[in-house]
Amino acid sequence: MTAGTFSVGHIALTAAITGVLALGAAAWRLPRGAWLDVVSVAVLAAGSVFLWRISANMPQLNSDGLPGFSANDWLAPVLTYLFLTVYADLRPPADPRRYNQTRALAVLASLVVNVVTI
Fold it and tell me: What is the spatial distance between Cα 41 and Cα 37, in angstroms, rounded to a whole number?
């Protein structure tokens, strides 16, 4: 690990927290029988954060340009939105309105977790 970067463990923890929060949002908003979508939302949210943060783990992107917010803090939720949108395009949800609410909550969780934990 170099100055201005984060450890793999730190990034993995950030991703895991995002996944747990997304799981909670999905379990709350999605229909009871949509267990595959619930799990998929959690895995994709966690995966998007992990893959983005690990691949963009460099001082220039981790430095806070705006106090408290780095480029990576802003971009990790964008990847969460993208991953969840592609998933919904490939496997249309049973209740699109509730899925959209779930996606929005997962994106917000991604932003908050990235700002608070990293």
Answer: 6
Question: What does the pLDDT read at residue 84?
Answer: 98
Neighbours of 83 (CB within 10 A): 24
Q: Tell whether 2 is covered by a domain.
A: no
The identity of residue 115, as a single letter, is V
Domain region containing 86: 8-117
Asked whether residue 39 is domain-assigned, the answer is: yes
Q: Which residue has the tokens 């994709």?
A: 44
Taking residue 27's Cβ as centre, other Cβ atoms within 10 Å add up to 16
SS3 label, residue 64? strand
Specify the residue for token string 């991604």.
Answer: 110
Type of residue found at 97: R
Secondary element (H or E) of residue 22: helix 8-29
The string of pLDDT tens digits covering residues 25-42 is: 999 999 999 999 999 999
Number of domains in the chain: 1
- Phi, psi (deg, nearest 5) at residue 70: -100, 170
Q: What tokens appear for 92 in the block?
A: 């249309």
Residue 110 domain flag = yes
